């Protein structure tokens, strides 16, 4: 039996690394790749927790067989049905025809719909327990973190929470699997990005899940993406808590669109003045160059947000339009907000940003700047006033 994969007594890591895919969910860049984590518990009963992306099914089975040999798997726990974790279910049922699939009623409906499997189910409800021999699993329903069927599985004996996508991040596991085996530095920004891109809309369900888990003694978190958390558990839970409360650190994101540089000049003046006011974390994103994934990450990270847009066919600049719709769909909360824009003959961008600000119910500065054509000393002064107002609000 392999010990190199063992993360706790008789619990093995059987996940895989994806260094091939460019975009997660067809949308979010993967410069550091991503891991699909799966875990095998070998007790009197053998249990597999989640599967992996279909591109890696062969490698996945190889890893399982290295540990089990010809011994069959008795149960598959499906904590989350997103295909990067569930896509190997059909193959698993072919190789292990007597396997029972553990999920809640919503999971079961989805497995029927996605994979045409209509039997083999062992349905669980919140708090249900499954004895495996020595170890016992308990199932916690955590709906909408970030699909309706999402649940988590707790192994009391090892104090391990198998958390599904929660507490996950982008980035492959390059040698180390558990946090103390690696330098975790590269994963923190990827955790912000993962949360803001994928889970961001579901702050309230994440808070509910955190409250439900708060009474449980968790020593190890095994998520479906990224490192296994042991030493850094408190930091990881605190990041998820802050992000789901939409709490931002002191700092400002300036996200602007600019075709010919006029709106960008306004952004530069604002950034310079923010720095003069003592704001040290200033992140500027030209929305035509920065990928939306990183802009969202930084907006979730910092409390201050300033958006600038030229008027474009009587609308917002298209990439700014896309950004504001993503913020609305994530129901982004608690931001200190300022905005500015430009036009040449009939301005629309500032009006659109003004109604966006109203809809978001943020703390908005009352001095947006609207510029016709080129920058003037009057507009420079107004941009500086906007920056001062943001800095003042951030320091309150
Ligand atoms: C395709 C296109 C559409 C535009 N539509 C409008 C418009 O509807 N109303 C307007 O006043 N200006 C419009 N403009 C002018 C720009 O808003 C204006 O020149 C602005 O200063 C551009 O900012 P920039 O230099 O940061 O790109 C348009 C410009 C372009 C290139």
UniProtKB/TrEMBL annotation:
GO terms of molecular function: electron transfer activity; FMN binding; metal ion binding; oxidoreductase activity
Origin: domain of life: Bacteria
Name of the protein: Flavorubredoxin
Natural source organism: Coprobacter fastidiosus NSB1 = JCM 33896
Domain Flavodoxin-like per the UniProt entry, residue ranges: 252-391
One Pfam family from the record: ODP
Protein family: In the N-terminal section; belongs to the zinc metallo-hydrolase group 3 family.
SMART domains, per database record: Lactamase_B (SM00849)
Matching SUPFAM superfamilies: Flavoproteins, Metallo-hydrolase/oxidoreductase
């Amino acid at each position: 039996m392999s010990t190199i994969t063992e993360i706790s007594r008789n619990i093995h890591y059987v996940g895989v690394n994806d260094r091939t895919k460019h975009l997660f969910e067809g949308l979010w860049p993967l410069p550091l790749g991503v891991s699909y984590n799966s875990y095998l518990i070998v007790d009197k009963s053998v249990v597999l927790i989640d599967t992996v992306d279909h591109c890696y099914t062969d490698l996945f089975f190889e890893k399982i067989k290295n540990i089990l040999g010809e011994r069959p798997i008795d149960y598959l726990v499906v904590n989350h049905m997103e295909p990067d974790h569930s896509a190997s279910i059909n193959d698993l049922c072919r190789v292990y025809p007597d396997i029972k699939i553990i999920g809640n009623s919503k999971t079961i409906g989805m497995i029927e719909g996605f994979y045409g499997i209509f039997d083999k189910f062992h349905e669980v409800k919140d708090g249900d327990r499954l004895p495996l021999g020595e170890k016992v699993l308990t199932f916690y329903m955590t709906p909408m973190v970030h699909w309706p069927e999402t649940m988590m599985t707790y192994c009391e004996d090892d104090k391990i929470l198998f958390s599904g996508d929660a507490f996950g991040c982008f980035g492959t596991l390059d040698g180390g699997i558990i946090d103390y085996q690696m330098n975790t530095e590269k994963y923190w920004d990827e955790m912000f990005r993962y949360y803001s891109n994928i889970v961001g809309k579901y702050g309230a369900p994440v808070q509910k899940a955190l409250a439900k888990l708060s009474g449980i003694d968790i020593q190890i978190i095994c998520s479906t993406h990224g490192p296994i958390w042991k030493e850094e558990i408190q930091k990881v839970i605190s990041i998820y808590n802050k992000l789901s409360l939409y709490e931002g650190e002191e700092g400002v994101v300036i996200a602007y669109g600019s075709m010919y540089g006029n709106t960008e000049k306004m952004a530069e003046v604002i950034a310079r003045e923010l720095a003069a006011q003592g704001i040290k974390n200033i992140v500027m994103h030209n929305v035509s160059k920065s990928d939306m994934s990183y802009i969202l990450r930084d907006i979730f990270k910092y409390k201050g947000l300033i958006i600038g847009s030229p008027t474009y066919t009587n609308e917002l600049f298209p990439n700014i339009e896309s950004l504001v719709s993503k913020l609305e769909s994530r129901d982004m909360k608690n931001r200190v907000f300022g905005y500015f824009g430009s036009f040449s003959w009939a301005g629309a961008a500032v009006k659109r940003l003004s109604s966006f600000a109203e809809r978001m119910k943020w703390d908005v500065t009352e001095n947006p700047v609207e510029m016709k054509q080129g920058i003037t000393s009057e507009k420079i002064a107004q941009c500086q006033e906007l920056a001062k107002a943001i800095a003042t609000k951030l320091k309150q």
